[in-house]
């Protein structure tokens, strides 16, 4: 097994994750590592991304007596556990085929110098020595700023970052440098030869292993940027894989990236959530919307609506915010309520669901969004005015959403229903089953403590809310739909976590298709093909290799506080 580690220096938010996944695309290696993310706050960490697998903690080992009563220390117990975990996860098949991958790509979160990441850096330093030279490649993503008063690219921050990395036992083989814009031209963002020379001399890295990462129209161009600068060849050389060096086949990927640049017909989605002040809290939801929009040949516009701004209390306290929120909601072609925890903004989410249901606006509810849809249906259709979740009112007399019986009410960490779980379709005639290719079951990722109360399911279904997907026991509701609505789907799982460019999540694809009037075509296509071949992107034009200096490149995102997020 070969390993590629991607680290970051100087500042956060430089694009370590994008760089790591782009390297994975180039090398056709996609393993990704995960820990128990159950209790992380999106405001503190951005989005909490859940994978199929779980993890075993050092504390669990100590409780079992694996350390024979010895004091548990950062070194060697925690660092050893990190290394064991990396090796175990790296050998798990990731492409549906038997056997492990050839290369594992690892992203080290945070920035070099952070005290929180020191145990991991120590562990990875030991790990690089353990696997040996030729089996470990370190790519360091760093910042080369430009001071406006000088107009010169400054390499000192990166030099100090590399020095700090070396001081902790890790030596980078490749530098991927982001440069701040001196102007709006790409030439100003590309490392000049003088800067490259300084970095090579003081960081002890060959000049050909120093790569420029500049702003592109969308992040799907990053693998092409790395390919054009021969990053894959540099990695193969470090890993002693010269015998397998070949030009990556990225024709389909290139067509998709360039097709995304040409989109102009809009589709406007209202995202009603609790953490809308931080878009990274819903990053995978955002990306899944992009994947589906590109497949539908639409340009995505996302309007971020704080759920609490839709509530009557805001109408009194801040009427302008209230009017602006409702104006965005009523102007949307689709309404999405994502996951979340806590009771803040719940009433606003209920109002958003009610508006979508009554006005036949395409709706997708994820995790809490599905639970909110059930509560709204019980209140508005069944007439149960006090219907709610025990998460919001533990003493409610109408608990339509309840705490899962197997969960712990006293211990928050490690008690969620996390990871991949199987959902069985109750009928193949529903929209969700057709979108998944008329399969009998699906495996999707979960992250929740609460569920729809099975005692009320028959009453809900008799009133018209259909639970089209359930777990293996038939007692846990996984998918809820309104059959007579253009598109009203709620799911207990998180379909966004398995969405990919060129293979969008079926439920997101259906949602966007419904929002732009293409649902019938998509349903027919999906129900006639296997889900592994959903909507392959046709070639738009043949990609011609160009210089890495592309004058048409512009900033990736345009963020406007009122108009929303434009891709």
Automatic annotation (TrEMBL):
UniProt name for this protein: CTP synthase
Protein function: Catalyzes the ATP-dependent amination of UTP to CTP with either L-glutamine or ammonia as the source of nitrogen.
Alphabetical GO biological process terms: 'de novo' CTP biosynthetic process; pyrimidine nucleobase biosynthetic process
NCBIfam families in the cross-refs: PRK05380.1 (NF003792), PyrG (TIGR00337)
Protein family according to the UniProt entry: Belongs to the CTP synthase family.
GO molecular function: ATP binding; CTP synthase activity; identical protein binding
Broadest EC class assigned to this enzyme: ligase
Enzyme Commission number, as recorded: 6.3.4.2
UniProt pathway: Pyrimidine metabolism; CTP biosynthesis via de novo pathway; CTP from UDP: step 2/2
All copies of domain Glutamine amidotransferase, residue ranges: 278-513
UniProt-listed InterPro entries: Class_I_gatase-like (IPR029062), CTP_synthase (IPR004468), CTP_synthase_N (IPR017456), GATASE (IPR017926), GATase1_CTP_Synthase (IPR033828), P-loop_NTPase (IPR027417)
SUPFAM superfamilies in UniProt: Class I glutamine amidotransferase-like (SSF52317), P-loop containing nucleoside triphosphate hydrolases (SSF52540)
Keyword terms of this UniProt record: ATP-binding, Glutamine amidotransferase, Ligase, Nucleotide-binding, Pyrimidine biosynthesis
Catalytic reactions of this protein: UTP + L-glutamine + ATP + H2O = CTP + L-glutamate + ADP + phosphate + 2 H(+)
Top-level taxonomic group: Eukaryota
Taxonomic placement: Eukaryota, Viridiplantae, Streptophyta, Embryophyta, Tracheophyta
PANTHER family: CTP SYNTHASE (PTHR11550)
Domain annotation CTP synthase N-terminal: ranges: 2-56, 57-241
